[in-house]
Write a structure and sequence with these properties.
Elements (H helix, E strand, L loop, with lengths): L1 H12 L13 E5 L5 E6 L2 E6 L3 E2 L1 E2 L7 E6 L5 E6 L6 E6 L6 E2 L7 E6 L5 E6 L18 E6 L5 E5 L4 E5 L5 E5 L20 E5 L4 E4 L7 E6 L4 E6 L6 E6 L7 E2 L8 E6 L4 E6 L2 E6 L5 E3 L1 E2 L9 E6 L4 E5 L5 E6 L2 E6 L5 E3 L6 E7 L5 E8 L2 E9 L13 E7 L5 E6 L5 E6 L3 E6 L5 E5 L14 E3 L5 E6 L8 E6 L6 E2 L7 E7 L4 E6 L5 E2 L3 E2 L3 E6 L2 H7 L3 H17 L1 H4 L24 E3 L6 E7 L6 E6 L4 E7 L4 E10 L2 E5 L5 E6 L2 E6 L5 E4 L3 E6 H19 L10 H9 L8 H13 L8 E3 L14 E3 L8 E6 L17 E5 L2 E2 L6 H5 L7 E6 L6 E6 L4 H23 L4 E5 L5 H12 L7 E5 L9 H9 L26 E5 L6 H11 ...
Helix pairs in contact: 5-6, 11-12
Length: 1076
């Protein structure tokens, strides 16, 4: 570890910005109209530099992210996006530098694209708003709308709602180029060829006509205008993404202008004088057509300290708790670092201080060592922290703490656990092999070989030692494609023993009652979440000792009598059995392992099924404590199995948590939502365990660790061991060199997405979820507006059912104009979003009028948030689809949309299929823009179910809702390029089984199982696609194999945005034919 820390010190201590060192990882370059300057983003700020290179001048210097620069046509101003108010808004500033003015105020993401020909307006893309006539699936984040705003600010006017990215207008401002977005795939995925990839389009503002300009099956993107009808764009049509030239009149006539290999061309820009700029391989280039490429070297005279160090206060965010044997200390992990606090508030000590990830904690039996796992030097290893001075009893107050390796090699070893006698450590090797290391002689035995357990997220395996240190418990399917059961492992490596044989998945087996009982969690009796297994679980106990089982079954009164009788017998022989140095209460008992009739000695310990999280039993087995969600929040519950009493011990009102219990059973230790507390098991009283510490956060070193973690993880966890032929070593080395030129997570997320995008797999890439204190949140009124209305106020086109104005006594109607919000007039100089920021659920006064009668109204409402409005928009859309289906089919055909592959949508689907659509002759199943989950098998069963028996209550023959022969009614499936993940698997299986026809557009082959991994910086997440799928009896996997519809129909922009869903209409036509 010291060697790696030294390397980090060298890396981050360098002055990388001396004038002799050109900058790398330049983002979003934008050429000035005259081609003399390039504006760009670097390390979160904007700069400009001569187009021939040299020393760059800063345009912005602040702690926000400032990027996406766009020059005005006269070169005097630059529009850009900044997140200084918690989201990307459009700003404008002089091209020479100076104060920036904010132009947009909506908390949606706003990115500038272009200026109007007279430079009075800025065109930008936004996730906000939509056209009220559209019948396209409502997804604000998927379909970017094009708006304009005055350079002086004010109202925002929609130009187009097709879903336009990288918009560039021609000189006259009469038409624009754009790239589309059809689905959810990561934008940095490379080399995939499917219907979801981007294409180049032209929109004519005068004729309102759309023209598709690209026809390649892979990526075509980032169009910019050339001279006249010429345009340039980036394409992967010849392998790697390069620069091409074409013409809007004859777009099939192409000229390839660059011929880079391996790494894509990105960030295309062109000046009005013909100079082209772009990035490739982390470097900046310019090109004059007909001339050689020119690499642009940029330098900064300022010395920016890349080793950004922040001292942050640590008060919450704790996880992975471990309690010392005496209960006086609790260890935990915050942002990959280990801390130990006194449980009585006496102090907190930071144990580790590295850029790496440490975790998976356990105290040694004597409490003087703390075992933990650390990922460093290209692998996970097991270390221990130790109190050095013998006269210091606690970690939290220790002056010197040593850290030494316990199990260390080039392989991954983690999740070490001491045996109760302290002589052995059980641990995982390479995630899927369970081993035991003898600490006395260093020997190692394998107690569960590879192929019996599978770890998908580091630290996700639950195994525990028996009190006598001879056995371990784990949940395993023992290599079968079946449910996990409780397996007893012998520490000497002899044959495992399966203790349960349940068809329901079992998890987290544990010991109690001195090793005479095993308890675990099972979904056997709880409500099922069909796609993902049990929604509710119970706690069960298996007794390994018949005598202990018999005693456990005694009533409270019978147990009291039994113990009194036993005490009399014991006292009669006490002198013979107990020496002066022993006592009856401390007499060691051997664990009796009686494997016969275990099913008969299995009890349900919980009294009712619930969404149970962590759980612990008291050492004597008399009390069960568990975290459970009976309503919307998690609380602590206690069950007494002997008396069948159950009560809420402590109200926590938490989202999630974990639980530990003291050896005497008197205290529970909790982590809930990152906070620590202890609870008296008798009274339920809760006492907070305060975390008061600081962390010296080395952000750049932390990012470097995250990068190395990703590079190391992919070869070990990707679904294809051959990584689909990708030279992963090359790309790991290639992208690593850009780390010193990044100081923020926006640019870092681009880096890791570029790296993961090389795998050409679905479910990869990075995601960044920035967090801001008091960032803008724009409330909504639950109204649809005329987004092209240019007068004062807001013109209402529809009142959303369920919204704030959907009240019996509200006067709000279509066509009315909102004039004021909380007394401020909505002139064209005011952005209404500015008045609605931070207004969610706050009483808000709205003044409006009827333009026909001039009548005025005043109403007070509570605005809702955007997620709530999105739900209303989705409900509005499905109601509209149902209405169109019913009206166009004469009431013969039903419609159901499946928005996601999860339990809630499954229940809704059943409700609609068996409810309002039960008497329909046929059914249209719409899966368009379904982002996936895990539901395909259940849906196949639902839509192929046959009815073979009909009930006749009191002799009455009921009218069947299925065809006369009992078969499933005819169905068809609507699919689109936006289907993803399990929304590929369902139509794939539907077609292979010949259930019905697929109608719509092809679906990219994305049916792969993923695990989403949050990093130690929890604002960052990556996808780890680990499970490929193949059809039964076949060896080829479904990933990257596109699914073609039986009837291919593409919705034209001009149709779908104006109330005509051509795909739905084709499905109705097809089903009417089938039911004739």
């Amino acid at each position: 570890m010291r060697k790696l820390l030294f390397l980090f010190a060298i890396l981050w201590g360098q002055n990388l910005y001396a004038q002799s060192t050109p900058l790398l990882w330049i983002q979003q370059p934008a050429l000035s109209p005259d081609g003399q300057w390039i504006a760009f983003e670097f390390k979160g700020n904007l700069y400009k530099v001569s187009s021939v290179g040299g020393n760059a001048t800063p345009l912005t210097i602040n702690g926000a992210y400032n990027g996406y620069p766009v020059w005005s046509h006269d070169g005097k101003e630059i529009a850009f996006a900044s997140d200084r108010f918690g989201n990307f808004d459009v700003f404008i500033m002089p091209a020479s530098g100076g104060e920036a003015r904010r132009l947009t105020f909506n908390s949606a993401k706003d990115i500038p694209y272009d200026f109007s020909p007279d430079n009075s307006q800025v065109y930008y893309g936004t996730e906000a708003g939509d056209i009220y006539t559209s019948v396209r699936f409502p997804s604000p984040s998927l379909f970017t709308k094009l708006f304009r705003v005055s350079i002086n600010g004010g109202s925002n006017i929609m130009i187009n709602s097709a879903g336009t990215e990288y918009v560039h207008f021609n000189k006259e401002g009469t038409m624009f180029l754009f790239q589309d977005r059809k689905g959810y795939e990561d934008p940095y995925r490379k080399h995939h060829q499917s219907a979801v990839t981007r294409d180049i389009w032209l929109f004519d503002l005068q004729t309102k006509a759309y023209k598709k300009l690209s026809d390649y099956a892979g990526e075509d993107r980032e169009p910019v205008w050339g001279n006249g009808n010429d345009f340039y764009y980036l394409s992967e049509r010849n392998g790697d993404q390069n620069l091409y030239k074409s013409n809007i009149v004859n777009p099939s006539a192409l000229t390839q202008l660059t011929f880079f290999e391996k790494n894509p061309v990105r960030n295309l820009s062109r000046s009005e004088t013909g100079t082209i700029a772009f990035t490739q391989g982390g470097e900046l280039y310019t090109l004059q057509e007909g001339q050689s490429l020119r690499k642009i070297n940029i330098e900064l005279s300022a010395d920016f300290n890349n080793n950004e160090v922040k001292n942050i206060t640590v008060k919450d965010g704790a996880g992975q708790i471990a309690v010392s044997p005496n209960g006086k200390e609790i260890a935990y992990v915050i942002r990959g670092e280990i801390y130990v606090s006194s449980t009585n508030g006496a102090g907190t000590k930071r144990i580790t201080n590295t850029p790496y990830q440490e975790g998976m904690l356990q105290f040694s039996p004597d409490g003087r060592d703390l075992l933990y796992s650390v990922e460093h030097e290209q692998s996970w290893d097991i270390y221990k922290a130790s109190i050095v001075k013998k006269n210091e009893p606690y970690f939290f107050s220790a002056t010197i703490i040593s850290q030494t390796p316990v199990i260390e090699s080039a392989k991954d070893e983690f999740e070490g656990k001491y045996s109760p006698d302290g002589k052995k450590i059980a641990y995982l090797e390479e995630r899927n092999i369970l081993k035991v290391r003898n600490l006395d002689n260093g020997s190692t035995v394998t107690v569960l070989p590879e192929g019996n357990i599978f770890s998908f997220l580091d630290g996700d395996q639950d195994f525990c030692w028996s009190p006598d240190s001879k056995h371990l418990l784990i949940a395993s399917s023992l290599g079968l494609e079946s449910s996990d059961n409780v397996v007893l492992l012998n520490a000497d490596g002899s044959k495992p023993v399966q203790l349960t044989h349940s068809g329901f998945n079992i998890s987290n087996p544990q010991w109690t009652m001195g090793g005479q009982m095993i308890y675990f969690k099972s979904g056997k009796l709880g409500l099922k979440s069909s796609p993902t297994g049990p929604k509710q679980t119970d706690i069960y106990g298996v007794f390994l000792n018949k005598a202990k089982f018999d005693r456990f079954l005694l009533s409270k009164n019978d147990l009291k009598l039994f113990d009194e009788m036993k005490q009399i017998d014991s006292l009669a022989n006490v002198s013979k059995k107990i020496s002066k140095n022993d006592s009856l209460s401390h007499e060691k008992q051997q664990i009796v392992l009686d494997f016969d009739h275990l099913d008969d000695r299995t009890l349900r310990l919980s009294l009712s099924s619930a969404q149970i999280g962590d759980f612990k039993m008291s050492p004597d087995g008399e009390k069960l404590y568990y975290l459970a969600r009976y309503d919307n929040r998690v609380d602590l519950w206690m069950t007494t199995p002997r008396t069948h009493d159950n009560k809420k011990l402590t109200q926590l009102d938490a989202g999630s948590g974990s639980l530990e219990i003291s050896p005497d059973g008197k205290t529970l230790y909790l982590e809930t939502d990152g906070y620590l507390s202890q609870i008296d098991t008798e009274t339920g009283n809760k006492t907070a365990i305060n975390i008061n510490s600081t962390m010296e956060l080395h952000s750049e070193a932390e990012r470097a660790y995250i990068y190395e973690h990703i590079v190391k993880e992919i070869p070990k966890r990707f679904f294809d061991p051959n990584l689909q032929g990708v030279d992963w070593t090359y790309y790991g080395n290639f992208y690593r060199k850009f780390l010193p030129y990044i100081n923020n997570n926006y640019d870092f997320n681009v880096l890791i997405s570029e790296l993961l995008g090389e795998l050409n797999s679905s479910h990869t890439g990075g995601s960044y979820y920035p967090s801001f204190d008091n960032g803008d949140q724009t409330a909504t009124l639950g109204l649809l507006f005329d987004q092209k209305y240019e007068g004062s106020g807001l013109k209402v086109m529809e009142v959303l059912p369920g919204g704030p104005f959907d009240l019996a006594d509200s006067k709000m109607k279509k066509g009315f104009i909102i004039d004021e919000i909380n007394g401020t007039s909505l002139t064209t100089e005011i952005d209404p979003a500015k008045l609605l920021n931070h207004q969610q659920r706050i009483q808000t006064l709205i003044n409006f009028h009827d333009p026909k009668t001039k009548a005025t109204f005043e109403e007070s409402i509570r605005p809702i948030n955007k997620n709530e409005e999105n739900s209303l928009l989705y409900k509005r859309w499905t109601n509209l689809m149902e209405h169109l289906t019913d009206s166009l089919s004469g009431g013969k055909i039903g419609y159901v949309h499946i928005a996601g592959m999860d339990e809630a949508n499954y229940r809704l689907t059943i409700d609609q299929v068996e409810g309002r659509n039960s008497t329909k002759k046929a059914l249209i199943i719409d899966t368009r823009f379904n982002a996936g989950g895990n539901l395909h098998e259940q849906l196949i069963d639902l839509f192929t179910e046959k009815v073979t028996l009909h009930g006749r209550p009191q002799g009455h023959i009921l009218k069947p809702t299925s065809p006369e022969d009992g078969s499933a009614k005819p169905t068809c499936l609507l699919v689109s390029e936006g289907n993803y993940s399990d929304a590929f698997n369902f139509p794939y299986e539907y077609k292979r089984l010949k259930i019905g026809k697929l109608i719509g557009m092809p679906v990219a082959g994305t049916g792969t199982g993923v695990f989403w991994e949050r990093q130690i910086d929890e604002t960052l997440e990556i996808g780890l696609p680990m499970i490929s799928l193949s059809w039964a009896g076949e060896t080829s996997i479904m990933e990257n194999h596109q699914l073609e519809p039986d009837i291919k129909i593409q919705n034209d922009y001009e149709q779908i945005l104006n109330g005509h869903d051509q795909q739905l209409e084709a499905a109705i036509k097809q089903m009417l034919i089938e039911i004739k």
